[in-house]
């Protein structure tokens, strides 16, 4: 079952009329339409953030409004991977696997955030790629360009989940920082669902850097530090 016309109208009107805390990055829901795809039938939401002018989307499967324990993937834009099929990263594979997982589950939501290059933009990301071609890893390249290793802000994602009335989520991610930011913004997380992609010859060093330097939890490739972090997160879910 998908969202009804009455639900869509109510959600859009509520988003138009709500007022955000002045310190929050507000998001406005503008429209929802059907999205038949290669992975199944979804609905797609258009959301605009007045604080940065970016357009974000939410891909919805089923009637998830007001529900808890909703399967959720929060995916940051990656033109080179998502669109061009670059093998330098695991972004496209994670995006497609998430859509397949949500379809198989029968309901869920994928948030597609316009945070290209971990929110440094496409041009700066390509500059970072050029540095990586010279032997620097992804984090070193960002730092050399004057950026943080990861500049993404998941406050927008939290706002979107609240706009959709989602009470709690089961999140598809390997990134503990994403979990911590969402929790800080008031999102209740019931479970972490791993989303580990087999590395290619081009992405192996990239994934190793995410694991060793950014603390990403990469399943069978987990280090002792990662295992401890997994146990810590699991304990929080049980509380």
What coarse outline follows from CA principal-axis ratios? Answer: globular
How many domains would you count in the coordinates? 1
Architecture (CATH level 2) name: 3-Layer(aba) Sandwich
Mean pLDDT: 88
Q: What class would the helix/strand composition place it in? A: alpha/beta
Please tell me how large the radius of gyration is: 18 Å
Biggest sheet architecture: 7 strands, mixed
In CATH, what is the class?
Alpha Beta
Explain how this protein is built.
By secondary structure, this protein is of the alpha/beta class. Helix content is 42%, strand content 21%. It has one domain (5-115, 152-238): Rossmann fold (3-Layer(aba) Sandwich). The protein has a seven-stranded mixed β-sheet with strand order 1-2-3-5-4-6-7, with helices on both faces. The longest helix is centred in the middle third of the chain and has 15 residues, at 91-105.
